[in-house]
Amino acid sequence: MWSKNKDVPVADHVRAILSSLDARVPERVDADLLEALVDAYARPVLMVSPELDPGARPALEALAARGLVLAVVSNTMRTPGATLKKLLERHGLLRLFRHATFSDEVGVRKPDPEIFALTLRTLGCDAAGAVHVGDDGVLDVRGARAAGMRVIQVTRTPADSGPESPDAAIRTLADLPAAIAALG
């Protein structure tokens, strides 16, 4: 699925795990048990949260104060969008975003330009006036470029150069407001 830039709801992840044990198990799991298994699958990240870039909140607050429209576009991997929203809320960040698009909820993943286009349509924004910020050279840089967006890559190593290079590279999110200002 992922190699085709597609994604599925987290319940399908759990069903796939169950069927690897025995192909008949998923059909024997009732809705309440499936819900409990999905919760157990998604909950660990809430118990041991990833470390937040210390510059994230101040940078996002500064951008929001400038009147910029902020959104999240995220591949969910193993953690469903609903859980990622809880993490963003826990860190006081969710309120700063007008919209959040998660691959498990929309069925498409970065680098497919459609996940970016879905978000832009929802916000009523034009790709040429949008900037995507991400850390992955393929998923974020190539994906956003294919959607017609400018890109800032968060990276501790020199960013790739060439036609698929980001418009700017920053080492930490604390540098984001200045990088966006430099893009105009």
Note poorly predicted spans: none
Provide the gyration radius in Å.
18 Å
Using DSSP, what is the number of strands? Answer: 5
Name the CATH superfamily classification of the largest domain: HAD superfamily/HAD-like
Name given to the CATH architecture of the largest domain: 3-Layer(aba) Sandwich
Overall tally of structural domains: 2
* CATH class category name of the largest domain: Alpha Beta
- Helical coverage, percent range: 40-55%
> What structural class should be given to the helix and strand makeup?
mainly alpha
The major beta sheet can be summarized as:
3 strands, parallel
Tertiary shape: globular
| Count of alpha and pi helical runs | 10
| Termini separation | 37 Å
Strand-residue fraction? 5-15%
CATH topology of the largest domain: Rossmann fold
Strand order across the largest sheet: 3-4-5
Mean of all residue-level pLDDT scores? 93
Order of helices and strands: HHHHHEHEHHEHEEH
